[in-house]
Write a structure and sequence with these properties.
- The chain has 117 residues and is mainly α.
- It has a single domain, classed as Orthogonal Bundle (Arc Repressor Mutant), CATH 1.10.1220.160.
- 62% of the residues lie in helices and 3% in strands.
- The chain has six helices and two strands; from the N terminus they run βααβαααα.
- A two-stranded antiparallel sheet has the order 1-2.
- Helix 1 packs across helix 2, helix 1 packs across helix 5 and helix 2 crosses helix 5.
- The longest helix has 19 residues.
- The protein is globular.
- The termini are far apart.
């Protein structure tokens, strides 16, 4: 499934750090929220797109995904059955980028909670 070490696009990392500063939500938790928002919205990643993973925040998949690891991997495998492990990691990162677009400008934790409920 997903590789043991995963990372994101640099711009997404910066957005997650900014969100952390505003809300106190750590980048890994915000990435989980963003991923599931993207899945709910129906975003589909195209593996032929030139999507670069340029970030420097490399974390193990357990840290990125926490208790959502199994369901995250299952959702990715269901949506992208023919993708390799590396392509699934890129798809995950693209979903995080898509989902963070909806929550990156939120100013505090209360607004974030209202947005995700």
């Amino acid at each position: 499934m997903l590789p043991q070490t995963m990372w994101l696009n640099k711009a997404v990392e910066e957005q997650l750090q900014t969100l952390k500063g505003k809300t106190g939500v750590t980048p890994n938790v915000a990435a989980r929220i963003a991923f599931f928002r993207s899945i709910e919205k129906g975003f589909v990643f195209d593996r032929n797109a030139d999507y670069k993973l340029s970030g420097s925040l490399k974390l193990d998949k357990h840290t990125w995904l926490g208790k959502t690891q199994q369901v995250t991997e299952l959702l990715l495998k269901q949506r992208y059955p023919a993708y390799s492990d590396k392509e699934l990691q890129t798809a995950w990162a693209a979903h995080v980028e898509d989902g963070i677009a909806r929550i990156r400008s939120l100013d505090n934790i209360n607004i974030l909670i209202r947005e995700i409920i």
